[in-house]
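Question: does this match?
>
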Amino acid sequence: MTRLSLLALALALLASPGRAQQQQVETLWNCKDKDGRTILTNQQADTIGRECRIVHQQRATVVPALPSPKPAPKPAAAGFPKESPADRATARAKQREILERELQQEQQMLEEAKRRLAEQEAIRTGDEKNYARVLERLKPYRDAVEVHEKNIEALKRELANLYR
C-alpha cells in the first residue's frame, strides 16, 4: 500500500502544472563501419550508414529549475561609520607621503647601484680575457640598476594615479 501511495505522489509531483517537463533518452551505440572499425557514439547522426547496436539506453525526465528569488538588499546599519571627505583626504595625504618617501629611498638605492656598477666596470682583472666573463661579472650590478629603475617608474605611476 505504501509503494502505491509513493508512486501516486511521485506522479502527482511530476504532473504538476506550471513546470514544463521533457523526456530525454540517452542512448549509446556501438557501430562498425564498412572497414571494420568500431565506433562508440551517443550521436544518432553518427550511426547512419553503419552497422550499429544499442549498448546502453537511459530515460531521464528533465524539469527546469524554478528561478530563485532575489534576496532583499540589507539596509545600512544604524550608526555604521562612513568615511567623510576629510577622512578620505587625510588617507590620501598619508598615502602620498608614504609613496614619496619610498620614491626617495628608491632613488637613493638607484644611485648607489649605479655607483657600484661604475666601480665594477672600471675594474679589469687579468683572468677576464674573454669579454663574456666581464659581462657575466657585471650582470648582477646591471640587474640591480634595472630593478631600481622599474621600481621608480611604478612609484611615479602610483603617485600620478593619486592625483586623478
Summary: The chain is about 50% helix and 15% strand. The mean pLDDT is 80. The chain has two domains: 21-63, 85-162.
